[in-house]
Amino acid sequence: MNKRIKVACLSMLIGGMAINPAQSVWAQAAKKPAAKTSAAAANFDLKYEKYKLPNGLEVVLHQDKSDPKVAVAIMYHVGSSREKQGRTGFAHFFEHMLFQNSENVGKGNFIKGVNQIGGTFNGGTFTDGTVYYEVVPKDALERILWMESDRMGFFINTVSEWGLENEKQVVKNEKRQRVDNQPYGHTNYVILKNLYPASHPYNWEVIGSLEDLQNATLADVKEFYEQWYGASNATLVLTGDFETPEAKQLISKYFGELKNKPEVKKLTPQPAKLTSTKSLFHVDNFANLPELTMVYPTVEQYHKDSYALSMLGSLLSEGKNSPFERIIVEEKKLAPGASADQSSAEIAGTFRVRVRAFDKKDLDDVQAAVFAAFDKFEKDGVNQQELDRLKIKEETALYNGISSLLNKAFQLAQYNEFAGDPGFAKKDIAMTQAVTAQDIMNVYRKYIKGKPYVMTSFVPKGQEELAVKGAVKAEVVEEKVVAGAEGANTGTEPTTFAKTPSKIDRSKMPELSNNFAFKAPAIWTSQLKNGMKVYGIEQNELPLVQFSIQLKGGMQLDAPNKIGTASLVDAMLLEGTKNKTPQQLEEAIGQLGAFINVSSSSENITISGNTLARNFPQVMKLVEEILLEPRWDEAEFTKAKQAALNQIKQMQANPSAVASLAFNKVLYGENSRFAYPTAGTMQTVEGITLQDLKDYYQKNFSPSVASFQVAGSVKQADVAKALASLEQKWTAKNVALPAPVTATAKPAARLYFIDQPEAKQSVIYAGYLAVPVGSPDYAALQAINHKLGAGSASTLFNVLRLQKGYTYGAGSGFSRRPTAPGMFAASSSVRTNVTKESLQTFDEILKTYGTSYTEQDLATTKGALVKETALSYETLGSLVNLLETINTYNLPLDYLKQNEVAIQNLSYTQAKSLINNYIDPSKMVYVVVGDAKTQLAGLKDLGLGEPVVLQNK
């Protein structure tokens, strides 16, 4: 399908991690569409009812009673494309503002209110629109409609200079975190400035510039709200378990009286036009590898050619037989991979080629290889077999794209707002089906072959010679790092404001309807004769099956000097079998419309898959072949090893990854098997041979340490049939698993620092090894952390982000491991010039948490956690994860219910005792990754001892 909306960011963070709608239906859209789908996909129809309120608000209802919850999405037809020069980033900034206050809900109560009922929420801004969404228990339907309508119609009077200045710091922190402090973070900025003229609505990034954000005024906010945030410029979608007459009555009650604002004129297509190629380079402070990007101007969304361009991207870059794989990866050995992708927005589109090369590779050679791959594609033409494979996989992707209520809400809202029809999916699919091989060749010649483009060479410091010859230095605005905090918000927060009249009493928060009930999924179990355990959940909403085979061991079975072996084993398992080349295996999987993946962790190797239910038996035959007959191809091993080294090199450039890895090493100790990344280090991976992989496989792959998890539209008896051959052929052997780690050495110091020169933010981790293996307190630990750091209503988030404006997000949590102590960890990325102040704030919050924790905090947590659990098990992926957790930690099948009981029975006295035992400020160890030149000296008088400077290696 041709859904090409790019979500630039999401303003609310939960536990320090952004919830990203692009991970759901938009992520499925990012998978290039197939040229043809099956009859089932062609007949796809997401049932809905659409109507319009007198004020112009368009409403779409989709009833789904499979789960006791509802999802609400409101999409406004306003994004960065509607901004003014000098006020870039304002649509996204305004998205932030709408979470802060409204006349009747009250300051901070939107965030708090959703958290207290166990719901999730967020917002996202992209070039052409803004979306707000919530998923809540169904008994909160009226409450969430009251809250959303208050933002739509009763917000603007609450906005003040104080609130404006406070939120500016948050948005600027987001830009620093997402763009300025990231490898290759300025790529889009350079491309947009050179692809579109200054007058074009796509000339700037959605997040805007720091200068423009700082210059935003209260008058700007009011003007923007009045112009764009009217009911007639939005679509409201409600999906889930509701009664239609009641839902209509409530929507009319809360949204019907909102005033109708002037109709927004639609933008007409404005494709970019280049008269010549532009080549630019940038020396990237955070990049360790050179990267080439080539962007060609194309067409807007839903244009006929956009479908063929999407197929072109897939055929060029996806799969073992693709020209990019053959030329760039295999023949020239310049990079571990390359991508090509069509991205269509409302008024223009682009076709982007990206290659992140191996260390020290010249980007002139990369550019030449891209053109050689283009030539190969044109010479060979469209590979019909590859085209067929992509066609078949579309149906699976289609169903996965609507696997949750929220995904369905996004799809209906987007199609309604941008195609004028919530059911446009059928037409979208039909357009995809209609693409022919000739169409693909036509768009290649029309938009790509010999056409001008914008090219960027992003190279590491000191490696300018790697940029494409003749490239011009790009103009990039980079914030200077200066010592000392930015000026504090000296304004006064107002306590009163004018009230907007309403026909109904909006002053009281609607009560919950108390019609909520959660029934945990029914789990069945069995065990094969070879010892493999089997866990299953039958769920028949969609014709899909998701599964995993989890083998205990993972990285902890690597030789100490060859960490990364398990990770390379997982990379090799999909590189062919005894009777299938890598290309043939890929083709066999694709012809079934399946997705198969292999991954490794510190304690497991997991083979996972997702398939149409009707193809499950055939997919399991392929999994059996992958598992029992690996190919161990020497050439593929060389490629996998090079890719692994490239991945490690990239991680060394990412401040967040550097901080996380250093934190692990400090807590577990230099010699612990858990002190290193699963992928290994440059030194350990260099020494790994193909024989090491074979030895690992022979010693450690056995059904005696394996479990099979499955969820979806398949019965237990059919699972048994599908596993019968594997049961017979896979014989058990003794696998020597390491004994659990029960004790670790205490870190030598309390404060560690890693220099990241010119970092725009400092990454902070604080914590210690707090959770013993098999701790019976784990459920209760989630409860005592909830108020501290589990979400946007938590203390850490509230103080560090909302009150002080130091960060974009902050959070904390407990983790557990099956064979080693788990940790308590709090973390955040803060602007560089408040590093010291942020550490002081962390320390203060942790020291006072035990004394400030109230009985009401515990009561609120109990109510929220029960409903959070109920809302967590909707997709097949979440159900398979549940089964994996049960197996990994040897938990009872009803452990969700047991957790609920444990949390509900937790007394205030017990909670206080757990806080004192598990969140002990005196045991906290801090790791900071930031700019040593401006920040290190100031950390010496924090009372945490002399900082120990670590090397990034």
From TrEMBL:
InterPro entries: Metalloenz_LuxS/M16, MPP/UQCRC_Complex, Pept_M16_N, Peptidase_M16_C. Keywords: Signal. Residues 1-27 form the signal peptide. It holds the Pfam family Peptidase_M16. Residues 216-391, 688-864 form the Peptidase M16 C-terminal domain. Residues 59-183, 545-665 form the Peptidase M16 N-terminal domain. Belongs to the peptidase M16 family. This is Insulinase family protein.
